[in-house]
Predict the structure.
Amino acid sequence: MKLSTNWINEHCKSKFTSSELVERLTMSGVECEIINQKSNEIIKFDITPNRADCFSVRGITNELLAMDLIKQSKNKFQSAAVHHDRSVKINVSSSEDCPVFATRIINNINSNAKTPQAIRQKLEESGYKSINIIVDITNYVMLTIGQPLHAYDLDCINSPIVVRKANNKESIELLDGSSKSLNDNFLIIADQNKPLGIAGIMGGISSSITDQTKSIVIESAYFNPKTIMGCPRMLNLHSEASLRFERGVDPTIQIEAIDMFTILLNKIAGGENGPISSKISEEYIPINKTINLRKNKIKKILGITIPNIEILSILKNLKMDIEENEFGYQGWNVKAPPYRFDINDECDLIEEIARIYGYNNIKECIEDEPSEFINESSRLIDKNNLCNILTGVGYSEVINYSFVSPIMNDLNQNKIGQSMDLQNPLSIEMSVMRNSLLPGLINNLMHNLKRQHKNIRLFEVGKIFTGTKNKINEDEKISGLIHGSRNKEQWGYSSELVDYYDMKGHLEILFESLGISNYISYKKSNHKMLHPGKSGKILFKNKTIGYIGSLSPEIIFDLNLNSEPIVFEIDYSIVSERITYGYKEQKYFPSSRRDTSILMSEDIEINTVVKAIYTLNIKELKDVVIFDIYDGKTIKPEKKSISLGLIFQAKSRTLTDEEIDEFMININKHIQSNFEIIIRQ
Amino acid sequence: MSDSLSDLSSKSIQEISECSNLKELELLRVKYLGKKGKITKELKSLGKLAPPERPKAGQRINSIKEKVQSLIETKKLVLADVSIQEKIASSSIDVTLNGRKNNRGNIHPISSILREIESIFHNSGFRVEDGPEIEDEYHNFTALNIPENHPARAMHDTFYFNTNYLLRTHTSPIQIRSMETHGVPIKVIAPGKVYRRDSDITHTPMFHQIEGLVIDKNINFTHLKGMLHQFINTFYKKDMELRFRPSYFPFTEPSAEVDILSKDGSWLEILGCGMVHPKVLENLKIDPEIYTGYAFGMGVERLAMLRHEIKDIRLFYDNDLHFLNQFK
């Protein structure tokens, strides 16, 4: 809602500057700002959904009264003259939805009369285009006192006017040119043949005011907010009327609004007025209940003691009915004025007192509880550790949207669950919940390659989503992607492309830092997104926690990449599997190393050989280093030669050469009998 | 004998003095003083002499040995120095040349602000709670006093899966879940992703919030103000001027927005807060006559945009390395 500062000042006979108004209203909870429009200053209001009463000049004036910035002025309530006794028959079939429905017939209007400049300017400053004198005055009354009105061309109505629920076959063409199909969720105003409008939202085109209109029926109603709520959203049609009816219009001003309209209209465009014909169902007009406001509850919630006299003055300025309880020692019985739909409980009153008293007049305190020592959060330690390791080896963190295009989800194998599809996505590219972080990382790779970045390393921590019959699964994952050269281009390093083992090394650093390396193993496996020969699954204590490998050649071909990205995706929960080993006292005795070269078939996994060596349980074998792998020209193509360095060290003495020779004999014998290999000395 | 000894002495002295490098000097040491060296040999041959001649000859040989030893030591020092000087003179590098390195990666700016805030609250005794991103209608709206069709729901443009499941529009449902799990008293914060159907220069359909909740027997509005002011001072690492102004959230009452005073003198909204609405407590079977509490929530992107003076929120989700690499 927009109102000019002039209009507000004119209405409450004051001389506030725009910034004074904005400052004071903002601090009472009516969010607003100055927008300059030509010479006059306009204030734009952003009214919260609880404050239906603020949608008019009168509502804003009430706020100024509440803050005691202006004095109450008695608005003289005037009735318009009545010139004839014609009225339209009203039939409200659903009184609960429409407790007040008032109409008046006005004949012989000069619909060519020009809207006076004073009204026109105010409307324009509030963002309303001047349409014709009748519509302009309905808007003017609405902006002044908050009551939406609707005028029908009398000649287009086949009376009686009926207020009823629509039926499922009806539809209506509206003033804005749109056509809506209706159903029994909607309350409509209709005549004998057709719907005339959707109650509280918008009128129909068939009975609208035109330049030829001579006689009108003006309608002023109070609709139950519950009836209107949700309808604008269902129709995707939010009007100035629905904005107000949905939140609640003062149920006591319908007659006043018709009279105000009539008097203004008569003054400008003449017309002969009929009597007001209304249907009022008192039993459905909401009455604010009396609330017991306790003094000690105010203290309990706000933490301060506000003097009784101040509380009373605030409540009076808010036009509340007040009755003292035990002379105010206990508190008060309070009833809010009919336009305050938001005051139903004691806490609502406490908020009213607090906001008018001023939040900034309430002191600040620190809770007086005994202070506790708190150890560093393990959640943060885990996250920091992960991030430090990955950023340390060059990965930058990205955050992608959790929704992706269905094509991206199809890239990933996902046979366990069905995809979680949004009913109302912003676009097809953001329509399903991701079932892997990898497609997002691939997108980021492509984006950054286009921006001429090289040697890209990215990681993301986030959830993936799958649905099964009775359950929605949200699993947190860590994913990474590397692409390009192992080292950034510089002197002293040759440029070699990253491969599987670079990324595996990064993960090994992570697992070592968690102390879980001994429980991690890798197995060749198939993953739809990965190269079948260059990928594997990662196991922790023999349970699969994720995958690592080169991206599949099909995807690389589709993306037109000239080198393989390597990716991984593992369960985030692994970061909390940290194992801490206590300190063990150790004496130092020198270690000895023996190297051995083994010729073996290409398809033997080197680690199975290393593992076999460890199964001998030689306590003194401290470490096995794979220091060379050769599959070059001098050996047969299906063979590879590996060089192992075996490091021996005892805890309590220096080992003799003879002892180590014996270990080596055992080791060589053992692996030769278990694998088809040749030891090359 | 005597003559050969003086020859040995003068020859060794000459050779040592002419020696020009450490390697040669070591050869000379072996030649004269080694196991099979000339002087050693002479010493060994002493036994062949008649006993009365031995002491004199022994004395002589030993004095030659000592002399040779000391000459070698002295020469060694001289030559070592020469060799160090030579090394220094012959080797020099371009100290301005770039070092060999690989780049370090960066943490996403949203992550680092989240972690910073989490850590501030953790240090003040708040437990950190998580919740599902796909929420049900009850936890996201109903339990928070936002009934169906209430205009407040229009404040949250919601992504739906079906009539019951949706993407959470705020982190507030975690309040409900943690009260369900832990009961009261409670002191938690809940960071996480939230989703609203909105996309422009200041809105992305996914963003991050941090929610806080404190409920106990004697919590009131002054505590809310005190705690948030302390938090804001800690976050900005200086005393900040701020204002609390009335606002509306269905699940708090009184409700407030907190603004900070910016450098240019304007007020910037940074978080929403309020006293927990009694209906929310009643929904969880907590007696609002005994327990009271406060809740607050803030948008992480907004804090990051203010801190780094970023104008367009969408940059956070482009994941362009030119952008990400600026947050070292």
In short: The beta strands of chain B are 127-128, 134-136, 165-167, 186-195, 206-216, 242-249, 252-261, 267-276, 292-299. The domain at 109-324 of chain B is CATH 3.30.930.10 (BirA Bifunctional Protein; domain 2).
